[in-house]
């Protein structure tokens, strides 16, 4: 089976966010594989181990993403592709990323494409379904279970806490939700092997795309931090008095009850 | 510049979800005096059209088909495609719900358009329609504009105030016939895991439990409090990992992001991963035995104490308040 994973390198949002020159400062910040993409990588490896085939992890980013691609290879992916458009495209958004990925994937005859359902930095959750539409294949988002039998696929999907059982078929794109699996940690032999696995680097030119083909449709004009919250009120006195005061404050001061 | 703007109304259990009305309010701002047309899609949804008009839609388009009874991206995309070809709108607003998140990127790709997801505020400034949305799990915000094509956005539930409901508003209700074919995904079954009624993303009140709840039974008083306040129960990752409750209740960076009017955190320490999912709630109450717990840093009101003592007392007090008001 020919399996692809769409991966994003993200800022670890456990980090403190600092804004400098109108951008989120990346200085000294930790970068990670987007946590939802880790589920996608793990699932891809499990599907390959069960059904045979090959897992290729693809990312659109800059050369720094090589580190996260190597991690994916160390987990067990077979090949990695870095599509570096940093120097070629100035204004990028989800339209850009999806178009680039779809252009790369269009002649790859993928049976299964996996992605995270959302990236924890930008948080738009658009790229997976956009790529499926551009490739003309069906998709199922936020999946928590995947069963493949020949070309028939049964998927369980999380819908705001409820579960939908969906039947569909390959080729297919799915996006991973938490609960799909427990992503493995790269093993030491895995890390050693990953160094020798193929990592291909492509640019816009290699995909026969021009900047104007992939230019963003939206633009960020400002980034700001939420207003600092004033220190809250820790209530005092015995517990039943505190509870009375709390209910009264919620009713009269905060007016939420 | 007046624009024609479509909204997609969303139906759950035979009723319109609130986000449908919030989408109309957002559409009014984007329309700048232009027409706002709500689209309602399903097997039998015509009777809901009047309520959309009462909430400010100038016109309602009803697309009914037996194959639209359950949401599928292919079915809904065909319905919306037909409406868009007929109406040629300049803006489109969906809710940032499971359905909206699933469907909107497909349509944006089909129409080669941008898409601003998870919008929490819309304003007109300096001749631009400006959309505000959270990034980095709500630790920062960005303002975006659309530079090319449709203004296609999804709005986060519970953030944009709907217009006042006014039954005296009038507007046309029209049917659009669509031939739905070739559904490539089929919904075989829906397993309800969430509590009846209030859904976490739209709840005005959330009572959430953490590791301090100690067991599945420990969630019972929280459920009682939530029911009393017409709210929903949520949980921290710690509580889900410990098996006290289903992952469907998880609030946080991995899990749901919520912005209720009132968030009551019980026995939750306040790990960054959890704060990312709830720190933008309007009012936060923290109940925790540990006075040093991180959750007190984001709380508006805090009680240092045992949740199993505090929550039952709270239930009693809220009951008294209900009787009096």
TrEMBL record, chain A:
Cofactor names: AMP
Domain of life of the organism encoding this protein: Bacteria
One GO cellular component term noted in the UniProt record for this chain: cytosol
GO BP terms in the entry: carboxylic acid catabolic process
Coiled coil: none
Chaperone found in the keyword field: no
Example of a GO MF term: electron transfer activity
Keywords in alphabetical order: Electron transport, Transport
One Pfam short name: ETF
Family designation: Belongs to the ETF beta-subunit/FixA family.
PANTHER family: ELECTRON TRANSFER FLAVOPROTEIN BETA-SUBUNIT (PTHR21294), ELECTRON TRANSFER FLAVOPROTEIN SUBUNIT BETA (PTHR21294:SF8)
Subunit record text: Heterodimer of an alpha and a beta subunit.
Function description: The electron transfer flavoprotein serves as a specific electron acceptor for other dehydrogenases. It transfers the electrons to the main respiratory chain via ETF-ubiquinone oxidoreductase (ETF dehydrogenase).
Protein name per UniProt: Electron transfer flavoprotein subunit beta
Organism: Anoxybacillus ayderensis
Lineage: Bacteria, Bacillati, Bacillota, Bacilli, Bacillales
From TrEMBL, chain B:
Cofactor note: Binds 1 FAD per dimer.
Electron transfer flavoprotein alpha/beta-subunit N-terminal domain mapped to chain residues: 5-195
GO molecular function: electron transfer activity; flavin adenine dinucleotide binding
Keywords carried by this UniProt record: Electron transport, FAD, Flavoprotein, Transport
Pfam families: ETF (PF01012), ETF_alpha (PF00766)
Cofactor section: FAD
SMART domains: ETF
Keyword Transport on entry: yes
GO biological process: fatty acid beta-oxidation using acyl-CoA dehydrogenase
Coiled-coil positions: none
InterPro entries for the chain: DHS-like_NAD/FAD-binding_dom, ETF_a/b_N, ETF_a/FixB, ETF_alpha_N, ETF_asu_C, ETF_asu_C_CS, Rossmann-like_a/b/a_fold
Domain of life of the organism encoding this protein: Bacteria
Residue numbers binding FAD: 211, 236-237, 250-254, 267-274, 288
Family: Belongs to the ETF alpha-subunit/FixB family.
The protein's name: Electron transfer flavoprotein large subunit
């Amino acid at each position: 089976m020919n399996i692809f994973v769409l991966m994003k390198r993200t800022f670890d949002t456990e980090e403190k966010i600092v804004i400098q020159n109108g951008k989120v400062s990346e200085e000294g910040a930790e970068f990670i594989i987007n946590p939802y993409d880790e589920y996608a990588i793990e699932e891809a490896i499990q599907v390959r181990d069960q059904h045979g085939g090959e897992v290729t992890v693809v990312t659109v980013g800059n050369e720094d993403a090589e580190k996260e691609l190597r991690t994916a290879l160390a987990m067990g992916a077979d090949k990695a592709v870095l599509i570096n458009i940093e120097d070629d495209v100035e204004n990028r958004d989800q339209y850009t990323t999806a178009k680039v990925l779809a252009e790369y994937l269009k002649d790859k005859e993928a049976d299964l494409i996996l992605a995270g359902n959302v990236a924890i930095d930008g948080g738009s959750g658009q790229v997976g379904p956009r790529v499926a539409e551009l490739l003309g294949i069906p998709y199922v988002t936020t999946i928590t279970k995947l069963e493949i039998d020949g070309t028939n696929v049964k998927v369980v999907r999380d819908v705001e806490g409820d579960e939908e059982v969906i039947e569909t078929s390959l080729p297919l794109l799915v996006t991973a939700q938490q609960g799909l699996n427990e992503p493995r940690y790269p093993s030491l032999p895995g890390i050693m092997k990953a160094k020798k696995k193929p990592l291909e680097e492509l640019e816009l030119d290699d995909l026969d795309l021009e900047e104007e083909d992939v230019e963003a449709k939206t633009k960020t004009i400002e980034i700001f931090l939420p207003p600092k919250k004033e220190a809250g009120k820790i209530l005092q006195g015995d517990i039943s008095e505190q509870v009375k005061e709390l209910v009264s404050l919620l009713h009269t001061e905060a007016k939420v009850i | 510049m007046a624009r024609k703007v479509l909204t997609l109304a969303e139906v759950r259990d035979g009723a319109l979800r609130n986000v449908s009305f919030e989408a109309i309010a957002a559409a009014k701002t984007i329309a700048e005096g232009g027409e706002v047309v709500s689209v309602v899609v399903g097997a039998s949804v015509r009777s809901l059209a009047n309520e959309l008009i009462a909430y400010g839609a100038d016109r309602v388009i009803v697309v009914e088909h037996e194959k639209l009874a359950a949401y599928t991206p292919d079915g809904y995309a065909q319905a919306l495609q037909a409406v868009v070809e007929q109406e040629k709108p300049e803006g489109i607003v969906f809710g940032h719900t499971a359905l909206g998140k699933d469907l909107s990127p497909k349509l944006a790709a089909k129409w080669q358009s941008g898409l601003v997801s998870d919008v929490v505020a819309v304003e007109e400034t300096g001749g631009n329609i400006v959309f505000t949305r959270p990034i980095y799990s709500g630790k920062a915000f960005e303002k975006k504009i659309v530079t090319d094509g449709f203004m296609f956005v999804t709005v986060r539930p519970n953030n944009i105030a709907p217009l006042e409901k006014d039954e005296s508003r009038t507007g046309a209700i029209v049917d659009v016939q669509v031939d739905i074919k070739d559904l490539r995904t089929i919904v075989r079954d829906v397993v309800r895991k969430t509590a009846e009624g209030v859904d976490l993303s739209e709840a005005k009140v959330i009572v959430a439990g953490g590791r301090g709840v100690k067991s599945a039974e420990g969630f019972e008083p929280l459920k009682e409090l939530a029911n009393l306040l017409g709210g929903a129960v949520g949980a921290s990752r710690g509580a889900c990992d410990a098996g006290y409750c289903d992952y469907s209740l998880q609030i946080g960076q991995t899990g749901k992001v919520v912005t209720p009017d009132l968030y009551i955190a019980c026995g939750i320490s306040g790990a960054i991963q959890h704060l990312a999912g709830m720190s933008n709630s309007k009012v936060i109450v923290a109940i925790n035995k540990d006075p040093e717990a991180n959750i007190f840093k984001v709380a508006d009101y805090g009680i240092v104490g045992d949740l199993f003592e505090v929550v039952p007392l709270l239930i009693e007090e809220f009951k008294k308040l209900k009787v009096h008001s």
